[in-house]
Amino acid sequence: MNPDTPLQLLGGLTAREFLRDYWQKKPLLIRQAFPDFESPIDADELAGLSLEEEVESRLVIEHGERPWEMRRGPFAEDEFCKLPEREWTLLVQAVDQFVPEVGELLEHFRFLPSWRIDDVMISFAAPGGSVGPHFDNYDVFLLQGHGKRNWKIGQMCDAGTPLLEHSDLRILADFQQTDEWTLEPGDMLYLPPRLAHCGVAVDDCMTYSVGFRAPSAAEVLTHFTDFLSQFLPDEERYSDADAQPVSDPHQIQHDALDRLKRLLAEHMNDERLLLTWFGQFMTEPRYPELVAGEELEEQDLLASLEQGAILIRNPSARLAWSEVDDDLLLFASGQSRLLPGELRELLKLICAADALHIENLGPWLNDEQGQLLLCELVKQGSLGFANE
Ligand code: SIN
Ligand code: CO
Fold this sequence. Notes:
11 helices; eight-stranded antiparallel β-sheet; binds cobalt (II) ion; Malonyl-Coenzyme A Acyl Carrier Protein, domain 2
């Protein structure tokens, strides 16, 4: 994707301009980002998904058993019949993994790293429905899928921003509106993290939220140090072979801190381990149980592909790759594999192609390491046979 091509999706801005001026900084309203958009899923299908055990869903009822009542799915069909006429919202997470046409929308966001994208959440709201004024810690693109929604935006928030007490949701106690727009199907609003916002359905309305992954600093530190500790022997300890006589034996001298800082830095600065952890962390699937592999022999995989079988990426799998010296790292659904540099084009193909078959795999089918890699990805569940 050329970063200097103006994109309709970004209201005529290029990816470079959008990243420079708006991404993580300020909101952008884009009229007809998706011209003549027609939602590939309707309200009944969305409600149908929320009945499923493996799908994460919520209902927010503004005047429920308590103000801003939130219920978690899966729901029973008759729960929908008992809802009021107005002022409720159904939110379904990761619809891209269950409805291929919704997953295809993400192709338009390829100017951003795919491992930063989390999911496409879809909400259906009855007239007046809203999840209240709030802020999210992530960037979001809010695409209007059906009906109209009025969006108000407000102040930048942080951890100290006051929230309403006794609410199941994180609703702002004080929303300071700065702007407002009504979005119609195909219109899209980009919001940076922590910007207060509130969307109210004008009529029956569906909103698609393309959300992003950004680990918190606390997550980075706890998860990375957990990962690192697997590689550290118990024998490696705080050591002070350079110690000087002490003037007060009860005092912790700053030279002890310097030794600790050296110990921390030695491991924290291990770039290869940091990259391995990060790739694994960012490709962890939202629903690991949906990335289930199958037993397969390499020669059977080869024979099937030669007879026209098609491999597709499991919609629940997440893939990314990186370079380490002359080698490559492939991250697949929370796991990593070190691979020789010669496999670069195959890795790029596996990460990018919707389908893998004899035509695009071509000579890779005669490459021993290539065959092995494809077979391992099927066994791990990141790739699977189409129409099985
Ligand atoms: C919604 O779709 O109702 C809520 C989306 C959001 O505000 O993050
Ligand atoms: Co939000």
